[in-house]
Amino acid sequence: MPETGPALPPLREVIARFGLSARKSFGQHFLLDLNLTGRMVRALEGFLPGPAGDLAQGTVIEVGPGPGGLTRTLLAAGTRRLIAIEKDRRCLGALAELTAAYPDRLEVVEADALKVAAEALGAAPRRIVANLPYNVATPLLLRWLAALAAEPGAFAGLVLMFQKEVAERLTAVPSTKAYGRLSVVTQWLCEARPLFEVPARAFTPPPKVVSTVVGLKPRARPLAPASMAALERVTAAAFGQRRKMLRQSLKTLGTDTGALIAAARVTETARAEELNVEEFCALARELEKLS
């Protein structure tokens, strides 16, 4: 990863000049340590093979750039097309300086990322790399997973920072406490791997939790056939009463539970956390047939 680019002022100076105190309403915790932003970029390049990991190709999408710490690292590393989505208009002046420093390489979109179709931004391969605002991290991920369910090639990869607790759910395996709805849907569509942890002191202001950077590599095709809507219904019912056996928890689906379980060939006395992704997909397929 080449460390080249124009001389830029320190991030703390940028924050002071533009009055960018982090706001709780935006879930902001600015990552100012350029060693860590560099590590995120190297993780992106190392985790994704071939063109997907080549920053000179396609598009990189960043969500919530704030004062631009990760943004400047991505640009210095050779990203040729970077689209940054920022909801907080206070940050636009700082980002405009980066746009001027890297002509024709950075586009800033002032918008709520939850309302942006990231899968339609820029040219493929598209990668998303972001220090996600904690308060919208899970809804954003589910939105991007829905795009992948509709079109497996929508994104070539995602390198995202979450609260450690959320990251553990993404990568959890069956029969563990962290295994749940988010584990199933994520692993149905992606290979998920924790890459490294980031301590609270690395942020301004420091959050009350440890963060984890997670790599998500979309599968060429989902792990098993299913519709995302049906899979979400099944997992919501099963994990909504995770201590109960499936023959009881799945009754909330409003269908013949016994017929559903028998057709999917899963054990009626099993609990949600005991089923693997393929078994949940079998339930989702049979639910659609019975609905």
Instruction: Spell out the helices and strands N to C.
Output: HEHEHEHEEHEHHEEEHHHH
* CATH class division of the largest domain: Alpha Beta
Instruction: Please state how the strands of the largest beta sheet are arranged side by side.
Output: 4-3-2-5-6-9-7
Report the uncertain regions: none
Major sheet size, sense and barrel closure? 7 strands, mixed
Notes on the structure:
- The longest helix has 14 residues, at 34-47.
- The chain is elongated, with a radius of gyration of 21 Å.
- The chain has a seven-stranded mixed sheet with strand order 4-3-2-5-6-9-7.
- The protein has 291 residues and is an alpha/beta fold.
- The chain folds into two domains: 11-218, Rossmann fold (3-Layer(aba) Sandwich), CATH 3.40.50; 228-290, rRNA adenine dimethylase, C-terminal domain (Helicase, Ruva Protein, domain 3).
- The model has no long low-confidence stretch (mean pLDDT 94).
- It contains eleven helices and nine strands.
